[in-house]
Design a protein that fits this description.
The structure is a single chain. The chain has 82 residues and is of the alpha+beta class. The chain has one domain. Helix content is 17%, strand content 23%. It binds iron/sulfur cluster. Iron/sulfur cluster binds next to helix 1.
Length: 82
């Protein structure tokens, strides 16, 4: 799972904005203003039925500050992106 969902900066971060783009998810914030330091992004590519699915996850980041449930607080009742 992407560590960003439990990061203080999830709704301000350029890298997470890019992950949302890749997953075709609605943005938490259309104008992110935070540039993270050295995020590591893991890209998984797999075939599913008749198409190729890619999954992007931030797996490490020097700017990470833990705030458990940050994404869920911003989108109450919605499923956390995996
Ligand atoms: S972990 Fe890094 S890339 Fe993810 S939201 Fe936080 S600052 Fe951005």
């Amino acid at each position: 799972m992407c560590i960003c969902v439990n990061c203080l900066y999830v709704d301000r971060c350029h890298a997470y904005f890019a992950v949302e783009e890749q997953h075709q998810q609605p943005h938490l914030n259309e104008n992110p203003d935070f540039e993270p330091l050295q995020p590591s992004i893991n890209v998984n590519i797999r075939t599913k039925d008749n198409y190729i699915e890619t999954e992007w996850d931030v797996v490490g980041c020097e700017s990470f500050i833990e705030e458990i449930g940050k994404w869920a607080k911003l989108r109450p009742g919605e499923a956390i992106p995996t």
